[in-house]
Amino acid sequence: MATEHAEGLTEIFDTVAALAPEIREALPGRRVKSDETNPSGETQLAADSYADELFLDRLGDLDGVVEYASEERTKAVHTDDDGQNYDAGDLSVAIDPLDGSSNLQSNNTMGTIVAVYDAPLPASGADLVGAAYVLFGPITTMITADDEGVTEYLVDDGTRQVIREDVTLPEEPSVYGFGGRVPDWPADFADYADEVEADDTMKLRYGGAMIGDINQVLTYGGVFSYPALQSAPNGKLRLQFEGNPIGFIIESAGGRSSDGSGSILDVEPTDLHQRVPVHVGNEGLVERLEAALD
Ligand code: AHG
Ligand code: MN
Ligand code: MN
Q1: 9 and 44: one domain?
Q2: Does the beta carbon of 218 sit less than 6 angstroms from any atom of ligand 1?
Q3: 126 shares its domain with 217
Q4: Can you list the GO cellular component terms from the UniProt entry (predicted)?
Q5: What domain range is 259 assigned to?
C-alpha cells in the first residue's frame, strides 16, 4: 500500500472490526423484511439498513474517509468538510453492509464486504488500496488484503487478533460454488460447470452468501462464480461493493478474478450500482473458465 494510505486503511479496518460484535448483537431483532427496496431492486431487511447507517456513522467520522457508498443507498455520501474535492491521501469506502442477508431468515452465514479506493466513486479495481470482509459464522473472522498480502483475524471481541498471515489459495483446489438458476445459465457456462463437476476431486459448496463461499475457496482452494445469466447479462453481483473487493482479495491471495474475459479489477466503472459477472479462484480453474466462455 502506498504509505500515504497505511494509517487510513488501518483505521478503516479497525473500525469495521470494532463494529462486528455490535452488528452481530443487533441481528436477532432485525430479521424481518422492510417495505423498502435497495437501488438494485431487492427488498431490504431491517438489518441491512441498520448496518448501513452504523457504517456511515462510524466510517464517515474517520479523517481519511471522504466518501461513503453502500449497496443500500442510491448515492455516495461526502463525509468530509472539503466538499467534493479529492486530495492526495483521501479515501473512499464502498460497503456491502450485509452480504447474504437473506440467509438471516434461515440463520446461515453472512458477512460484510469493504472496498477502500483512493479515488472518487464509482472507482476502478485499479484504484483499490485495500479490501476486507467480516464473516459472521460460528465465530466472527475477518480477512484483510492490502499490498502486504492477505491476513485472517479473529474479531469476536471487536479487536483484530491474527489467526493466519500471508493467506494464499491452496494449490490443490477442491470446492466450487456457482450462483444463479441452472436453467438460466448460458450454454458455455453450463459446459464449464459440467467440466468442473466431472472432476472427482471437486465438490459442490454453495451457501447463498458470497462471503461464506469465498471463505471456503480461500480455505480449501477452488472456484466461485456468479455468472452472466440469460435473464441478466451482467449477473447479480455489484462491481463496487462485491466484485472489485472480492477480486482484489483473491488476486492478493495468488488467485485470479474474471468477469468472463479478463480481471474484474480492469472492468470500467460506469455506475455506482453496476453489476458484473464474478468468477474467482485458483488460476487454472479461472483460466479454463475464460477459455470456455471465449
Ligand atoms: P446481498 O445479500 O448483499 O444482496 O448479496 C447476495 C448475493 C451473494 O451473497 C450471493 O452469492 C448471491 O447473492 C446469492 O444469490 P442467489 O440467492 O441467487 O443464490
Ligand atoms: Mn452482497
Ligand atoms: Mn448486502
Answers
A1: yes
A2: no
A3: no
A4: cytoplasm
A5: 175-293
**Cell matching residue 268:** 470500467
> Distance between CA 116 and CA 132 in Å, rounded?
9
Query: What atom in ligand 1 is closest to the CA of residue 181?
Result: 18
The one-letter amino acid code at 92 reads S
Query: 224 — phi, psi (to 5°)?
Result: -120, 135
Q: Which residues of the chain have pLDDT under 70?
A: 1-2, 83-84
Closest ligand 1 atom number to CA of residue 40: 4
Q: List the 278-281 sheet strands across, edge first.
A: 203-204, 175-178, 222-226, 278-281, 256-258
pLDDT, position 83: 67
Euclidean distance between CA atoms 275 and 138, whole angstroms? 30
Pocket-testing residue among 34, 73, 102, ligand 1, by greatest number of atoms within 8 A of Cβ: 102
End-to-end C-alpha distance for the chain, whole angstroms: 34
Give pLDDT, residue 250: 99
Q: Which three cell numbers stand for residue 253?
A: 491471495
